[in-house]
Amino acid sequence: MNWSVYIILCTDNSLYTGITTDIARRFNQHKDQKGAKYFRGRQPKTLVYLETEHNRSSAGKREVAIKSLSRLEKLSLIASGVNKADGFYKD
């Protein structure tokens, strides 16, 4: 199965990192507050970062690695050439 690692910019300008096998479904779950508890009290604004071609194990490890980055390091990652999020979901 093909897993993706993603970062969502939220309405409070925070960055949420997660993994999924279906980014469209997961983004909509977050919008409908049926996903992570993180989205209670805030809404997803835009998918700003996407990595694809992971398996479950590598996606989970990459998620942990990204979550350990500072905000500035995450913004740098978002601006990098690895990012495949262009043209994806916006609220």
Provide structural commentary.
The protein has 91 residues and is an alpha+beta fold. It has one domain: GIY-YIG endonuclease (3-Layer(aba) Sandwich). Helices cover 32% and strands 27% of the residues. The chain has helices at 23-31, 56-67, 71-78, and strands at residues 3-10, 15-20, 44-54. Strands 2-1-3 form a 3-stranded antiparallel sheet, sandwiched between helices. The chain starts with a strand and ends in a 13-residue tail after the last helix. 24% of the residues are buried. The model has no long low-confidence stretch (mean pLDDT 91).
Strand content: 25-35%
Evaluate the radius of gyration: 12 Å
Number of strands: 3
Secondary structure tally, helices? 3
At CATH level 3, the topology is GIY-YIG endonuclease
Mean pLDDT: 91
Assigned CATH class: Alpha Beta
Q: Please give the largest β-sheet.
A: 3 strands, antiparallel
Q: In terms of per-residue confidence, which ranges show pLDDT below 50 for 5 or more consecutive residues?
A: none
- Biggest sheet: strand arrangement: 2-1-3
Structural class of the helix and strand makeup? alpha+beta
Helix content: 25-40%
The topology string of helices and strands comes to: EEHEHH
